[in-house]
Amino acid sequence: MRKATKGYRASRGNLWRQMKTTLVRGRAFAFRDRRAKKRGMRTLWINRLNAACRMRGMRYSHFIAGLLRARVELDRKMLSEIAIDDPRTFDQLVELARKHAPKPAPKSAAVANS
User: Fold this and answer.
1) Which residues touch 16 (CB under 8 Å, ≥6 apart)?
2) Residue 15: pLDDT band with limits 50, 70, 90
3) Alpha helices, H only, 4-106
4) Backbone dihedral region of 10: left (phi > 0), alpha (psi from -120 to 50 degrees) or beta?
5) Is the pLDDT of residue 11 over 70?
6) Could you say which of 52, 67, 87, 93 has the lowest number of CB atoms within 10 Å?
């Protein structure tokens, strides 16, 4: 336990009760924040993709729906990297998604069903 609390300030690294409490809390935070980091990264990738799609006149949700229909199996991390590092390839992906995107329902049909 002393090894794990090496470098902690004041009594947190010296007194057993403080050491134990600090160690348990620190490990709980580490467990929680490893998952929060993954969530944060996915949010970042989605924000980057949304910005790149908007620059090309397409919404993120339509882009993802089009890629799913086109059976493109790239995850959001790779799509984000492509958008940053290789804009030409991303342009091609946007065109592919645009071609396969679901067609919007006519407005008159939506009003008639209501």
Assistant:
1) 1
2) confident
3) 16-55, 60-69, 76-85, 87-100
4) left
5) yes
6) 87
SS3 6: coil
CA dist 29 and 23 (Å) reads 10
Q: What is the pLDDT of residues 37-96, one digit of tens each?
A: 999 999 999 999 999 999 999 999 999 999 999 999 999 999 999 999 999 999 999 999
Residue holding tokens 């991390």? 77
CA distance 46 to 113: 34
Helix (H) or strand (E) holding 109: helix 107-113
Give SS3 for 72.
coil
- Name 50's Cβ contacts closer than 8 Å, sequence gap at least 6: 59, 60
